[in-house]
């Protein structure tokens, strides 16, 4: 009996498995998708899951035949890699957006694309992270870097503000890659003054959260706590896996401990290069879908 007749007499489930094995994929590609089929999830289910998660989109509904017959093109479009920080690991397949810009279904030219994800959020603390406020005029006068003085109406006090070295370059670099917001324990007027100084054109920051947006924890963090206020990233986005908090106070991470990048406290060191190091790190990992992966890779 020839192979065609063998195929005709196969149990439908066996025939489906045979088609799966004959997709023309490399052994490495087969190894990557085999666990999905071991759990009984066929091509149609795989695509439906990716649709539901927003991993792939297309402009028109697809028939079952489209799912099954054209999944090969989708799988072949995936760049297989064991580890790339700027790719998104989905069901053991690594999706490279740049590699699949215009994948189409050949029957009727209906496109389905790997979407470019919206920019993630980087929430920045201000005090001792980006700037340092001091009441000492001798410290202010001796500082040779960027500095500014302003008075707040609420307190009537003059604020002597030192700007951390390389802050301008840092903000310009990450604002092109992320939605950057201020998240400070300082009051709203204080935050607005600093925002206006650092971003007079209004092109760097996407928003500003201040003390009224923080969570008062009082003594809940214990007697050694460095702050009475913490920062709940659900104030930034309901999807906290797309938000990173950069702060010099670890206690601020209590609500989402996996989302925090701890930076060195800065007071006045003019040779400090922490923001340059952070800018390079955030640029290198700008394509990561889950921002909670970054703190594990950051070296304090």
UniProtKB/TrEMBL annotation:
Family annotation (InterPro entries): FCP1_dom (IPR004274), HAD-like_sf (IPR036412), HAD_sf (IPR023214), TIM50 (IPR050365)
Matching SMART domains: CPDc (SM00577)
Entry keyword Repeat: no
Membrane topology, record value: Single-pass membrane protein
Pfam family, one: NIF
Region (Disordered): 1-22
Biological processes per GO annotation: protein transport
Record keywords, A-Z: Mitochondrion, Protein transport, Transit peptide, Translocation, Transport
Chief place where the protein resides: mitochondrion
PROSITE patterns: FCP1
Subcellular location: Mitochondrion inner membrane
Family per similarity comment: Belongs to the TIM50 family.
Described purpose of this protein according to its UniProt entry: Essential component of the TIM23 complex, a complex that mediates the translocation of transit peptide-containing proteins across the mitochondrial inner membrane.
Protein name, UniProt field: Mitochondrial import inner membrane translocase subunit TIM50
Organism: Catenaria anguillulae PL171
């Amino acid at each position: 009996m020839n192979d065609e007749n063998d195929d005709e007499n196969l149990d439908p489930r066996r025939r489906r498995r045979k088609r799966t094995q004959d997709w023309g994929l490399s052994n490495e590609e087969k190894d990557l998708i085999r666990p999905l089929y071991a759990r009984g999830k066929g091509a149609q289910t795989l695509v439906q899951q990716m649709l539901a998660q927003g991993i792939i989109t297309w402009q028109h509904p697809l028939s079952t035949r489209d799912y099954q017959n054209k999944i090969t093109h989708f799988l072949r479009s995936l760049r297989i890699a064991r580890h790339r920080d700027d790719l998104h690991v989905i069901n053991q397949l690594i999706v490279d957006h740049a590699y699949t810009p215009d994948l189409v279904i050949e029957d009727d030219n209906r496109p389905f694309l790997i979407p470019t994800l919206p920019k993630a959020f980087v929430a920045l603390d201000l005090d001792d992270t980006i700037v340092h406020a001091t009441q000492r005029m001798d410290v202010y006068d001796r500082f040779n870097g960027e500095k500014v003085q302003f008075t707040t109406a609420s307190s009537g006090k003059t604020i002597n503000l030192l700007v951390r070295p390389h802050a301008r370059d840092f903000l310009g670099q990450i604002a092109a890659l992320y939605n950057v917001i201020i998240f400070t324990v300082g009051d709203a007027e204080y935050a607005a003054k600093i925002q206006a100084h650092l971003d007079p054109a209004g092109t760097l920051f996407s928003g500003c959260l201040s003390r009224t947006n923080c969570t008062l924890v009082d003594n809940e963090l214990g007697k050694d706590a460095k702050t009475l206020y913490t920062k709940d990233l659900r104030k930034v986005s309901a999807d906290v896996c797309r938000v990173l908090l950069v702060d010099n106070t670890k206690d601020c991470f209590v609500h989402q401990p996996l989302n925090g990048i701890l930076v060195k406290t800065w007071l006045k060191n003019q040779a400090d290069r922490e923001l340059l190091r952070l800018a390079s790190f955030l640029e290198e990992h700008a394509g990561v879908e889950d921002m909670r992966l970054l703190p594990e890779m950051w070296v304090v």
